[in-house]
Amino acid sequence: MNLSEIILDADRLFIGDEIPRDYLNEKQTKAKNLHALAYPLTKGEVVDLMHYAKEKQLVVIPSGANSGLAHATEAHEGELLIDFSKMNRILDFDLDTLTLSVEPGITIGEVQKYVQERGFFYPPDPASKHSTIGGNVATNAGGMRAVKYGTTRDYVRQMEVVLISGEVLEVGSLAIKNSSGYNLKHLFIGSEGTLGLTTRIDLKIIPLPTVNQSVIAAFPSLPVACEAVISIMRDGLDITACEFFERDAIALSEKMLNTPFPSQKGQAYLLMTFDGSSQESVLAEIARLEATIKTHAPEEIVLLNEADTVTAWKLRDSILTAVVELSENEPLDLSVPTNKIATLFNYTKEVEAKSGLRFVSFGHAGDGNIHACVLRGDLSEAEWAVKRHEVLSELYQYVHDIGGLPSAEHGIGLTKKPYFDQVFDSSYRHYLKQIKLAFDPENRLNPGKLV
Amino acid sequence: MNLSEIILDADRLFIGDEIPRDYLNEKQTKAKNLHALAYPLTKGEVVDLMHYAKEKQLVVIPSGANSGLAHATEAHEGELLIDFSKMNRILDFDLDTLTLSVEPGITIGEVQKYVQERGFFYPPDPASKHSTIGGNVATNAGGMRAVKYGTTRDYVRQMEVVLISGEVLEVGSLAIKNSSGYNLKHLFIGSEGTLGLTTRIDLKIIPLPTVNQSVIAAFPSLPVACEAVISIMRDGLDITACEFFERDAIALSEKMLNTPFPSQKGQAYLLMTFDGSSQESVLAEIARLEATIKTHAPEEIVLLNEADTVTAWKLRDSILTAVVELSENEPLDLSVPTNKIATLFNYTKEVEAKSGLRFVSFGHAGDGNIHACVLRGDLSEAEWAVKRHEVLSELYQYVHDIGGLPSAEHGIGLTKKPYFDQVFDSSYRHYLKQIKLAFDPENRLNPGKLV
User: Where would I find the FAD-binding PCMH-type domain in this sequence (chains A, B) (predicted)?
Assistant: First the structure.
């Protein structure tokens, strides 16, 4: 079958030079002379594309919103690009099992909106609302609410996956408990498009919490704030989000947005949310929170009204943009045990002193997910490339040594692969490669990423 | 190295005929002429045993408490049996990250007791309290509280695994968020000792709920009770356990224990528990529960006092024993979507009418986990074998067709393998085998089970 027999609509298939320049400039800046770009709409088309790629021995690269931060969907030369952004329908919302069936190209923002309008809730909340659910599954996307609700992994009941062979696997189940063979669902989640391509995802949906309350706690220093986080988790507080940042970091947002943060005391903050089904239960948890936090000598604890809630979260969400304005940069997404956040923070201060580079750190304290940014300062591009690699290489090793992981929620892709290979031993990586070969023996599906 | 150089204590190594007859009679009734039985105490010993087995090309069979119901640790002839029951220490309880590190041979009862005495909680609660945590991980054990708290999978942070090659992998992490490569942890969990042997497990522990309240709702029929369960889940009630059974089933327990169940109305029951950190929040949830259940015309709703709580759960827990008294039997552990419990129940009634065999069904309604028992009645052993296989073959196919799975929490092992092979297509099973071969290319680790 030719490509034009597989994808019948002209606006969904571009062969070789037909691929719009705009597309390449925006989404595939490093690609040249690609074989073709196809936008499938159905599982059948994806299967046929896989058979076509097999016949021509093409490398296949999947793509979604291209919002990923690990360059996990980068093409180079001669590949067949499959863009899932038009395969984006909601297929079914089953209220009996609370299951939303979607195609992979739908954005997370659309999923959240669809269920919320019906009184339900899809908790995973990555910052990019235009990222696709297929990409969210491929990276096991997390976000701020993971401390209470978990990550994407916890909300995938079942998926349909097309393998490079063209075979279709149904992995997972709408049945909740499963002790029926190796868990392929969990293997495909987080595999960054290297094992198979999802063509349908059945998501777990939950009822929408009706009450939300945000709280700020201000502390004299970040390590003290981190101690409070350990107590919060140990006391089993039912906390939905627990963000941390220094005054220095939120000050960047304050300056950019020209708005003050609702607390001006202290040098470090926890910005927290509690949610639930009644005002009483949420306030009861917050009373417990106050008791816990008071044992850590906070500068102040502020229960936010509606307007201040919006302001506080807007400022928090803008830290990254403010940092990027200072220095074009991709945030790291380090993951460490919750009792090692302060340890890592102190380490970055040492690196600052030694290297002269500035770090801005913030992130999800409740689950030890730290978005550290290393600022370029006034280094030349060449100096920056060398120094950045040197600093990151030591940083990733340090994270590994304190029991952490190179990626919490963005994935390894191409960007972190050198560090991934550095910190995981060859035996561990050997078995990842064996798994890759089990599903893709010719290494034709998104090769070079992750494994 | 000889075995006696690996395992130095005489009471931990039995070669060939030295293996105690009692052990074989009790734990390995089908085994004859085993190579050896070893009780390792350390990872190093397990590694050395694997190297020894490689040199001699022995099959290795792991074993724990032998409480499994799927015959997943059965040996036959010439194997090296590794019994983990003496490798059963608690290694560490870290209160900062709420992580309990244990060896695989510790029983689930001991884990629960240890943390509870310190004010903490390990939620997974399989019925066999003398099952080992290694076995719980191998089968992704669940139990009654899975509806709120999830299964064993949700409580394993990290594990140390020894492969058949003798290599040691550290899988998972104490860091909570993970988008750092294929998830080997989730692959090993539920793999029934066919991919590697766990030598250390770091468990997630949570604070102990201080308040518990059980409730009975009586309904005119099981299908009506099942409708109520769908509403309970849709309304997002924070329910810890939600068991279902018919009057006929609980009547078997009442007769055996000579004690009445705290409700005598209706033909089917839901026995539920709510837990939490305050009386108010638990009672608020129960008020919401009553409102939900009342829309399904219950015969009565009974909030249980302490004595009746003990009685009700004791009767529930005794259903299986009472069934086994009627007919030596292993309960099935079918898993279906929560809205298919009544469908499956109605199907078993049809099979009863057609086959003349009696079914007793009960189980965990909140997560669609049905422990159905097929009673032998007065069939001869030969008739029973034929008829049982015929009925089960059709039953497992039906469960598959309505979106269910053959095993919720007991595993596939040897017992369910024919049905597993029947309901999953050859392409799906091919990839499971490829994964098996990736870790165990010579098929020497617990072969013939699952894959």
Answer: 29-208
